[in-house]
């Protein structure tokens, strides 16, 4: 049966079961040969609008309706994975449908929802819906669709919040963070994430090192925060909304206490990125005193003292290779804060002088060794634009 005949049979079907069978045939056409839908011409828009409407009308507690909705989502997912299908999904309302499906809070009275997991394989419902949104957010078309940025940020924040308790187990949580990552690559969209998603993302960071299974999610969440921190437009807002409270425990934690080399190495990198993130926000003139008030000075001095006292763990998997660089960044942050006239007095009160003198003495007495990155001693760029 051709694509045209399949679409006609969907519209002509009198029962949900008949519609589902026809939609399943259409799914087969789309997943095996996308051109089958392209050949339909203007009818593509028409049929996708029709499918989106069917999904909205489907009862999530009916077996046939649940299967129908899953088939529709899989068709949308297949189209989203092809660049040429993105604009069609947005223009026909299919993208809005997908956003609506996953944006409803658990305690809301839902007019329509994802299929009941007891009726269909859960992999055919929420996960595939979120994957489709991730594909959409990864395209060039999404970059130019500014009206979608705020909506995607809001939906991603809901997904992170509702799946945070499943950290280490939830693929949806990781994908939601990847959607946020895509949004941070768009400079104009970063303020949306400060409004919707920032607190949820820092909450993932706040899970703490005592949950090693959360390390991958924490790394992804920190990438989102780091990318945001490169933008002067949101730096002060990030500090005001409690960024130091999330970053400082990560920087302060002595990862040598962790059991496996993999965990120690992973957390050392996490701590290093957290320090770089703090460096970015410290450049903002209104953030300097806020960082002092949040306790950043004491934590940064601890990083410096670890190098001087030799308390930094050594050996494979300890993150030793990043420790010296992290200490340099810590000094750079303190230097940046000291630019503020009022902050100078506060830094002295917090005991900054002795550790810095000791660091200079340590540096004089320590033979220089070229690091693996070949960049020790080079001046740092003021801001590092995100690279994804």
TrEMBL record:
Q: List compositional bias (Basic and acidic residues) regions by residue number.
A: 375-388
Q: Mind telling me which SUPFAM superfamilies this protein's record contains?
A: ARM repeat
Region described as Disordered: spans on this chain: 368-388
| InterPro entries membership | ARM-like (IPR011989), ARM-type_fold (IPR016024)
UniProt protein name: Ataxin-10 domain-containing protein
């Amino acid at each position: 049966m051709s694509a045209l005949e399949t679409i006609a049979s969907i519209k002509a079907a009198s029962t949900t079961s008949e519609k589902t069978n026809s939609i399943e045939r259409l799914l087969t056409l789309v997943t095996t040969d996308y051109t089958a839908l392209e050949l339909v011409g203007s009818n593509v828009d028409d049929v996708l609008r029709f499918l989106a409407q069917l999904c909205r009308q489907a009862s999530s507690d009916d077996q046939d309706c649940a299967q129908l909705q899953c088939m529709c989502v899989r068709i949308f997912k297949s189209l989203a994975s092809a660049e040429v299908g993105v604009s069609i999904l947005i223009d026909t309302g299919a993208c809005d449908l997908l956003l609506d499906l996953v944006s409803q809070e658990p305690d809301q009275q839902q007019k329509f929802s994802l299929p009941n997991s007891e009726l269909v394989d859960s992999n055919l419902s929420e996960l595939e819906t979120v994957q489709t949104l991730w594909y959409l957010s990864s395209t060039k078309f999404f970059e130019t669709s500014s009206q979608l940025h705020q909506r995607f940020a809001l939906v991603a924040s809901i997904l992170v919040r509702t799946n945070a308790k499943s950290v280490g187990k939830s693929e949806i949580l990781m994908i939601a963070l990847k959607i946020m990552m895509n949004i941070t690559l768009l400079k104009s969209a970063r303020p949306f994430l400060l409004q919707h998603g920032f607190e949820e993302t820092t909450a993932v960071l706040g899970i703490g090192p005592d949950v090693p299974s959360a390390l991958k999610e924490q790394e992804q969440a920190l990438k989102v925060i780091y990318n945001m921190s490169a933008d002067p437009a949101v730096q002060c807002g990030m500090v005001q909304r409690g960024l130091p409270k999330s970053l400082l425990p990560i920087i302060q934690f002595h990862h040598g206490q962790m059991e496996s080399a993999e965990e120690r190495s992973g957390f050392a990198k996490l701590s290093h990125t957290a320090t770089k993130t703090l460096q970015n926000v410290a450049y903002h003139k209104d953030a300097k005193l806020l960082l002092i008030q949040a306790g950043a000075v004491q934590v940064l001095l601890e990083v410096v003292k670890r190098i001087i006292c030799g308390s930094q763990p050594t050996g494979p998997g300890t993150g030793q290779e990043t420790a010296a660089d992290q200490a340099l960044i810590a000094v750079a942050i303190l230097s940046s804060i000291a630019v503020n006239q009022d902050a100078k007095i506060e830094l002295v009160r917090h005991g900054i002088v002795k550790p810095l003198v000791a660091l200079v003495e340590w540096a004089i007495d320590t033979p220089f060794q070229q690091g693996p990155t070949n960049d020790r001693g080079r001046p740092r760029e003021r801001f590092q634009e995100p690279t994804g």
